[in-house]
Amino acid sequence: MAYVREERNEMPMYKGEFQRAAKRRPIREVLPIPALRSPPAGHQGSSIEEAFASDPRQLPPEERQVFRWQGGETAGLEHLRNYIDSGQLASYRGATESFAHGEDNPVNSGTRLSPWLAFGCLSARMVVKEAREYERKHGKTSSGKGIGKIGSTGTRLHTELLFRDFLRFSALAWGTSLFKIGGPFHVKGLEWSHDMELFQKWREGNTGFPFVDAGMRELAATGYISHLHRQCCAAFLVRDLRLDWRMGAEHFESCLLDHTPDANWGNWAYRILQRPCLVETRAKYPVEEHVTTVEVVAWPAVHDARLDHTLRWCPELSGLSKDLAREPWLLDTVPDRRISIKPYKDSPLWFCAANRTNWDYEYFWLPGHAWTVKPGKSEVQRSDFQLGKDYPRPLVPPLNVELDLDALPVKFHGWGTEPAVRRHVWGGRKQGRPPTRSDEQSEAGAPEARPRWEANGKGKGTGKRGGKGKGHQPFYPESGAGCQNQWQKRRREADWRA
Ligand SMILES: Cc1cc2nc3c(=O)[nH]c(=O)nc-3n(C[C@H](O)[C@H](O)[C@H](O)COP(=O)(O)OP(=O)(O)OC[C@H]3O[C@@H](n4cnc5c(N)ncnc54)[C@H](O)[C@@H]3O)c2cc1C
């Protein structure tokens, strides 16, 4: 496909329409790799080697990095060959399939082709050709049995690459609006903060939310994080810290090995796309009461189920049980109110906080409630770990999300070992989701299908949503640590002046 400037207004707003149109067209042949011409006179041989030897310098090796890229076409082709030959395509999960939860979609999966694609070392056409050839020889597979996008894994890779094209063409159509505060969708009605202290904490991975912090630390140290992490860290900056999204995009730009303006700024622009009537809903349910990017607590439960990735980047949490390391604020808080977190229906959460449009069937393991917490003496005490000293307290009031442990789409996980703080985790059959171990036991007449958490109560009726008119309480009054949100500050200042 080619971009025609005069037809830019016909560029679809959503990727699906673009992808359907693109898939109807034949893919042009991959061009042969051109033979290199010799360098211009005066730049032969040793002068090029000398230039490379002096600068850029090699970064010290980062031991925690699970994969290292080597620049250039030769290395890119080799990586593509190895990826295809190893058969990994058969279980491929695309970057944007973040809604497909479970073992076959761990937080750091993906082809890792993006830096080579970004620098033009590999062409998307070549990748699709290789994927198709593999499927012709070995047959097609579809990981995830109908959950997620339809089509074989090779088709999914093609779909991801089309999203790349979509953003590239869209960026041409959007023009400079891509870099303006309202973004290409001209978002209005929201106030953005420029609080440098908050921004610095996000950049350094000191937000107090381990999944976000792991991503931000990995990004700074290696220049790469997976799509899941990019979505989550970006959504947290936009929706919870309420910082100007362009600050986040600039930071990503300064770190990412695979940076391209269309992919980076385009993906960020989608993070500020609002659900209809969001501004009104936010007025009704003041957002500063709790974190709204639920993924920061929910995703590690299924995409980093033993917390290996998070703990690699947040080693200070390694001594805690997995439950506590995922939600360390449980050490000095107590549950407050049980709230609904179903997006788009009855909660103030953003539409598409990351990808939550398929909530009813993709999130069957989230029963739909979470607990706000308030400072208090927790039932779990650790003498060797102090929140606020060994690891930061959360920058915005956190949530303790109810997980249906019996329904989790991961076989091996680290959750449920701290019953004292897990009173609200429960199992049980819900309409529209596959039967779980506990359902099967119930049907077989097992005496105790759901005993573990019920003993502690589900919290039914433990309070209603707080909402309009409920005065905001500083989350950590003694340190003010939880009150740094500029939005909250401004609100409190306004209250005080009135
Ligand atoms: C806030 C944010 C910023 C991002 N910035 C960039 C960026 O600067 N450069 C970049 O290449 N990708 C960017 N992405 C998209 C995506 O995260 C990466 O392309 C992906 O993580 C690369 O890993 P992979 O090669 O293993 O992906 P795979 O899942 O193997 O996908 C194959 C290829 O498809 C393309 N692709 C997949 N998803 C996207 C997407 N959402 N947008 C654009 N291309 C996509 C990439 O070229 C990728 O290599 C960003 C995503 C977010 C949420």
From TrEMBL:
Tell me its cofactors.
FAD
Stretches assigned to the Cryptochrome/DNA photolyase FAD-binding domain: 159-338
Pfam families, per database record: FAD_binding_7
The positions annotated for binding FAD are: Y92
A single BP term in Gene Ontology: photoreactive repair
The site feature described as Electron transfer via tryptophanyl radical is recorded at W192, W245, W268
Sorted UniProt keywords: FAD, Flavoprotein
- Residues crossing the lipid bilayer are none
Query: Which regions are flagged for Basic residues bias?
Result: 423-432, 461-471
**Which InterPro entries does the UniProt record give?**
Crypto/Photolyase_FAD-like_sf (IPR036134), Cryptochr/Photolyase_FAD-bd (IPR005101), Cryptochrome/DNA_photolyase_1 (IPR002081)
GO terms for molecular function, please?
Answer: deoxyribodipyrimidine photo-lyase activity; DNA binding; FAD binding
- Say which domain of life the source belongs to: Eukaryota
What are the boundaries of the region Disordered? 423-498
Q: Which PANTHER family match?
A: CRYPTOCHROME, CRYPTOCHROME DASH
Which family is this protein grouped under?
A: Belongs to the DNA photolyase class-1 family.
**Under which name does UniProt file this protein?**
CRYD protein
Q: Which organism is it from?
A: Symbiodinium pilosum
Q: Which gene encodes it?
A: CRYD
